[in-house]
Structure formats: C-alpha cells, structure tokens
Amino acid sequence: MDCYDNRELSWLKFNKRILAEAMDESVPLGERLLFASIYQTNLDEFFMIRVGTLFDRMLVDPDSKDNKTNLTPEEQVCAIRKAVAEHCIIRDKCWAELLRGLSSMGAEQIRPSSLSGDEEAYLKAYFDSEIRPLLTAQVVDKHHPFPFLKNKSIYVIAHLETKNSVKLGLVPLSSTFPRMIMLPDKQKLRFILAEDVIMYFIGSIFENYRIPSKAIIRITRNADIEMEEGLYDHEVDLREIMEQLLKKRKKLSPVRLEMQGDLDDEATKRLLKLLELGPENIFRMVSPLDLSFIFSLRNRMEKAHPEVFYKPFSPQRSPALSADLPVIPQVTARDTMLFYPYESIRPFIRLLHEAANDPQVMSIKITLYRVASNSKVIEALINAAENGKDVFVLIELRARFDEENNIGCSRQLERAGCKVMYGPQGLKVHSKLLLITRKDGARLQYITQIGTGNYNEKTSELYTDLSLITADRDIGTEAAAVFNALSIGNLIENTNKLMVAPLALQNKIIERIDREIALAESGEKAYLGFKLNSLTDKVLMDKLIEASCAGVRIEMVIRGINCLIPGVRGKTENISVRSIVGRFLEHSRIYIFGQGDRQEVFISSADFMTRNTVRRIEVAAPILSPLIRRRVTDIFSIMLRDNTRAWTEQPDGTYKRIEEKEDRPLIGAQDYFITQAQEAAFMAAQKKPLRVKARRVKRKKA
Predict the structure, then answer these.
(1) Active-site residues: which are they?
(2) Contact 615/599 with Cβ under 8 angstroms?
(3) pTM, rounded to two decimals
(4) CB-hemisphere CA count at 13 Å for 565?
(5) Which parts of the chain have pLDDT scores under 50?
C-alpha cells in the first residue's frame, strides 16, 4: 500500500476529529457547542483558501498533480466534495444531539412549525416592528439584476411565482438585529433564529406572489489571493497593495453553496446559474448554516450552568522566574522557558518593558506575524522607541486574515519611531524571534527569545506554545545575523546552533535524520521524535520513510495535516503518529534527535511543510540547558501517554481514538499540564521545591 495521503483530505480528517469532540459526551456540553462552531469556522476557511486555490488551478493548470498522491485539482475537489457531504450528515446528527443536551437543561431552539398560537402572534409582532423595517428584499428577474451575495452571509431565498413568470426573491439577514430571538418564557431559555423567522413570514414580504418553495442559503467565496511578483516593486508601498487585495478578497468567485430548506429544482437551477456554480457544489443541511450564534448562547448559559463548561483556568506564574525580581538579571543568569497557556506570558511582556526602560539596552529587534488587538507587545515596542532605543520590527503584512491588523500596527510603530520592514520578496517571515542587545560595561550582551507561537497575549491563553529565553552568546550572535540579513534582503546560509529557513533548516534536519539512520544501520538504537501541527514536506517525508526502513524508531504527535501514513509494512512500520485534540489548540513544535548523551532537542516556529522549510523565514533553536531539555522531552513523553484526548493514525489512513485500558491510568496531557502548572505556581509562592509526580486524570461524563 502507498504510504502518502493527500494534504486536503488529511486536513478534512483533522476537522472531523474536531467534530468528534462536539459529539463526545465526556466533553462538557458548553464546550461541545464551541467545538461545533470551530468545526464550521475551520471548514469555511478551508473552502475559502484551499478549495479556492484548487478552483483556480482547475482553470489555469488542470493537468497539474499533487506530488504525493498524483491527484489532479479536479480529482481533489471531487474527493473533497464527497468527504464534506459525508461530514454534513455527521454535523446534522451532532447538532441534534447538542439540542437534546440543551433541552435537558431547559434551553431549546424552536422551529417555526412547533410554535404555539401565542408564540406565533408574538413573533409576528416582533417581526413587523423589529425585523421587517431593517430588511432589504430584492426580486431577481430579467429586469432586476442578481445582487452580489456577500461571503459567508445568510440569505433567505424564495421561488416567486406569478401567472407570467418565475422569479427569485432574496432577503439578506441583517446584522442590525439579534440573530437569536428569545421567546418570552420565565422558566426556560427558548430561542428561534432570525433566518427561520424571516423564512416563516416571507410571504408578507413578497406580497402578490405565490411561493412554492423557499430556503436559507449561504455562499463561500474564494479568498485566496496570491501576490504577483510585480507587486514587490520597491517603489510600491506594500501596505497600499495589501489594502487593495483585502478589498478584492471580498468579491472573489463562489466555491460553495450551503442550503437549508426545500428550494425546488427550477429555482435551484436558476440560482446556480447566477452564481456560476455546478449542482455538485451544493451542500444541504438540516442544522443551522452558520453556528456563530453559539457564542451568544454560551454566554447565556455560563452563569446559570457553569457545570457544563471546563473548570476555569488562568495561566499560572512560572516557577522559573521570580515575580519579585526584574526579569533581565534572571534570564541572563540562566536559560528560561515558558510553557503557554499553562504559564503566563506576563514575564515576557515584563521583559520587553524592562528592556524599553533599561539604559543599558541599545536595541530591540523582533519579528511579528500575528499580534493581539491593543497589543501589549506593540505598546512595549513603542515605549522603547520613545525612550530612544533602536527598535527594529519586521512585521509580516501577509499573515492571512491578520493583514488589516498588521497594517494598522505597522503604522503605529512607524509613528513612534520604530524601524519597520516587511518580509523579503516571495518569503513570509513566520519566525518568532526577539533579540535584545545590551551594553554590559565594554561588552555586548544578547538576550534572545525564540518561540513556537506568536507574540499574542490572547492566543497565549488558548494555544500550547513554548518560549525559550536565553543569554547564550552564540545563539545571540546568530540571531543578530538573522536580523542583519533580513534588514538588507539577504538569507542566512550557514549556522552552527540555530536552524534558519529557507536555506539552513530542512538540510540540517536531514543531516540529523541521516545520523540516526547510520546508527540504526550499525545496530545501535536510533530515535526521532517530532511534535508538529502538520507534515507535508515530501523531502522530509521520504527521509523519514528511509529512516523507518533502516530501523529508526519514530514517534510523532501531529495535530492536523499528516501526509505520511504510519504503520505501512515495509515502508513506515517503525513510525507512529498520534493527534491530540483538546481544550487548547496544540501549537508547539518540538524536534528530538537521538537519545541519551547524544540527544539534541529543538523548538521551532516551523512545521514540516514545504512552505515552512523552504519558502518562509523560520527559526529553530536548540535547548542547551539540561534542565529545560529534560522538561521538553517530558512534555513530549506525556503527550505520547495521553489516552483520553488522543487519536492514533492507522495504516489505512484513518484515525482511531486510543482505547482506554483497565491496567493503565487515564492521562489527559492537557489536564496533566494544568495540574502541574497549578502545583508549580503554588510551590513557588510557598518558596518550596517542586516535586511533580505523574497523576491519574479521570475522564468523567459531562
């Protein structure tokens, strides 16, 4: 059997695991609702970007093939449609189960068909006074052009029939009234969705028409915008180009039509013709097309039913850094690592503010990919510039869906006196790299921070990431070389300690894999361990197959896309792959080469994807401290022991939940790290040494 999987189909398997969390009764009901919403949001972006790209390729390069499975763009789109259609059935079943759970708590989504007479009268009055005045209904016929349908917006569509013609009636859902309409009930939380109300009373909107059929629709548009090489002209302001592209993104062609209701064939054919879509691009569902209202529903439930949510958790103070002492002398004395979201990002923010105010600090250099709105990181950098520090910020304007925020941040930074640059031509800067340069007497001192996640206070509470802070002079010197190269448009070709893409990462990983292959072939134990978000780089995949065939044991924790199927006899039988989907989004990247005294451990911003290894600026840093190295390998080990939220990939490419066994304690990695962080923070507050023991994490029904 072939051991390669298609990237798009592997991603759909990942999103199906998200949907499985929404159906898992061991997950609290309020969180299951959130997973259902995340599933839909993920799928929207997938169609906008990945399917949008495939639609483009079907037009301009229809014979091109995926380099792993040899599927053409059309074959990939067909396979995607089939998988998503199957997922729609599961999604509808999931929503029905969630509604049953809500009903047991006294919360109900009401369908118009189940309204009592009094409820119908109440809704009619509400519709006439609060909704109808804000609606802009449109008739589509040969005298009235088809309007532009906004991406991901909800419309109610009706087949309008008169004696002489067939027309379409369109009513866009407005954001000026609530999506969830609450029915008067002191005992229960009963709601109806605005689109259901509009569809129920649509006859009063299109008077003098017979309406044989109607439906709720939602379209998804292609949002994949590739920057043409000519746009990199040095005389063109990249910000202006990005602003133009953002406007263009809202108007690209449809790639998906979702439908809820029973619009008849005649009206459906006309709609598809107007959208320039084939019938194979329709996805019919019973459940609501847009689940974003779930956030409002969860807010209403939280106070009354806290038991159906995860137990509240806030990032803890790191025991590695005293809150009573300045950060700079602590991190110059020894390497430090923060583990988000279990530990707080505050020490890092404190480090930036201390650097901004430290008279010995000469410069601060940083790469920014995604930052929070009202970012404390931006605030600290502005403070540093205003204090006369040399602040160099390389901000990536092309961070997808964060372009607008990054454009605004770049202007803020420039106004404050920071030196702002954008990524080099054709390469996104995805690295998480900070360099603080101090003058310690006559000697320069470097403080370098290398992370796996963005400088974003909000996501640091939601994503698992590692942040290394080191005063190692060699690492600082190489980080300085990275910034110097970026400032003049050059690339790093040679490094000793850091790995730096695009020229000095993939090859260095291969060198280390080759070392393990040589050891295995000489009869010694050889080992590789990787924690990644995605694995799609075929060069690295082929090297891992070679290592497996040589007898190297390879363990991987890959949250999302994995194009290398493990356990295939004669090819990947020494490779195991698991995926953890839980309360927090697994985002850290860990590379482990070898075992024992020769073991090397790195953390990185780079996944094993071609776009990361050879098409972006990425940085991987070695963990030199034996204490921190042990901590990172322990983190990886706990993930390999997770038997509550983990899935294992089978030799046929499917994923299976890890079975609970009576002779093994239940361990949920994320629950373990929460408890560990709480205990460590408590012991640090008591100024006592921490002794962490493995503990059982019981899995209870919600």
Answers:
(1) 430
(2) no
(3) 0.92
(4) 21
(5) 227-236, 690-702
